[in-house]
Design brief:
- The chain is an alpha+beta fold.
- The chain folds into two domains: 92 residues, Phosphorylase Kinase, domain 1 (2-Layer Sandwich); 201 residues, Aminoglycoside 3'-phosphotransferase, Chain: A, domain 2 (Alpha-Beta Complex), CATH 3.90.1200.10.
- Helices cover 42% and strands 16% of the residues.
- The strands form three sheets. It has a five-stranded antiparallel beta sheet with strand order 1-2-3-5-4, with helices on both faces. Strands 6-9-10 form a three-stranded antiparallel beta sheet, covered by helices on one side. It has a three-stranded antiparallel beta sheet with strand order 7-11-8, sandwiched between helices.
- The longest helix is centred in the middle third of the chain and has 20 residues.
- The model has no long low-confidence stretch (mean pLDDT 95).
Length: 313
């Protein structure tokens, strides 16, 4: 069962209350913008001020994203929205109020249809910034502001244990074939991570072109938004996202490979990280496509068999 959908009237009430708290008056104009699994976004104008209001279905996500945006503003050399406030009120959605950045969604076909030269200019700008973020100095692996692990495998195993525990506690019905794939993938974690990750990186956690804003005339990136699981991790953890949305059209992963040496078994790790990201969303929101997940799981388990023998568990 998926998490409940947003209720439009409640969303409007939430935006009005958050606007009054942030600006001292109710909004004169409210425009729904869109959203994803966990959030719904509105632009609201109050006097001379316009801000983005992001509403959340699950508790705690507003404060978590505010913390992640602050880290990205410090280390990512691209515009990231400034957080104005986080608001919680009984009976309303948690709300993050932040700076409204200009630009259109980076996953728009309007951008994808531009000349290759223009697409590659945008890709180079994004990948240069991502590589700089990944190179920023940081101590240890772990959540932003959370427990620090010296070893990436230990850190990632703890993440997978948390995902598995959340899935078990959710009482969601998991098809037996997916359950079997999950167990096989989990048992092969050490084999997939046979190459030690020598240094942690700050990652955005959900960096695909849907979470990038750009000027459609100049192809200049005007913003990076919506981190999810921004943390201190293996830099390769988020690279599968570069192929999502229209990322292949912009050759984002290819551009990253040109700039940064990747691990020997990166292609297997990429699918492994992708697979568990899908399981995470199943655990948190009950959202998944059964056939697509089974297909990815079968591919992953075949790839694992090409790796050097290693310990299981």
């Amino acid at each position: 069962m998926a998490i409940a959908a947003f209720q439009q009237e409640l969303c409007l009430q939430t935006v009005e209350q958050a606007c009054r708290k942030q600006f001292g008056a109710g909004p004169e104009h409210v425009k729904p913008v869109g959203g994803g699994y966990y959030g719904s976004v509105y632009f609201a104008t109050c006097g001379m001020k316009t801000a983005a209001f992001k509403l959340y279905l699950l508790p705690g996500l507003a404060a978590k994203e505010a913390q992640q945006l602050a880290v990205l503003r410090e280390h990512l050399p691209l515009p990231v929205p400034e957080v104005f406030g986080v608001y919680r009120e009984e009976g309303l959605y948690e709300t993050l109020v932040m700076e409204k950045l200009e630009g259109i969604n980076g996953g728009s076909m309007r951008l994808a249809r531009r000349r290759k030269k223009d697409r590659m200019r945008l890709a180079a700008s994004l990948i240069d910034a991502l590589a700089a973020l990944h190179d920023a100095p940081v101590e240890g692996f772990g959540e932003i502001g959370g427990e620090t692990h010296a070893d990436w495998e230990d850190c990632y195993r703890a993440r997978l244990d948390d995902i598995r525990a959340k899935l078990a506690c959710s009482n969601r019905s998991v098809p037996p074939e997916i359950q079997e794939q999950m167990e096989a993938a989990y048992q092969n974690l050490s084999r997939v991570l046979c190459e030690p990750v020598k240094r942690p990186s700050i990652i955005h956690g959900d960096l695909n072109l849907w979470n990038v804003l750009a000027d459609p005339d100049t192809m200049r990136i005007t913003g990076v938004i919506d981190p999810f699981d921004c943390c201190r991790a293996d830099r390769e953890l988020e690279l599968f996202q570069l192929e999502h949305a229209t990322g292949k059209r912009f050759a984002l992963l290819t551009e990253y490979r040109k700039r940064v040496p990747l691990s020997t078994y990166f292609d297997v790790k990429k699918d492994y990280y992708h697979y568990w990201d899908d399981i995470k969303h199943m655990a948190l929101a009950g959202l998944y496509e059964k056939q697509a997940l089974l297909k990815l799981g079968r591919k992953l388990l075949r790839e694992i068999e090409t790796l050097p023998p290693g310990k299981e568990g």
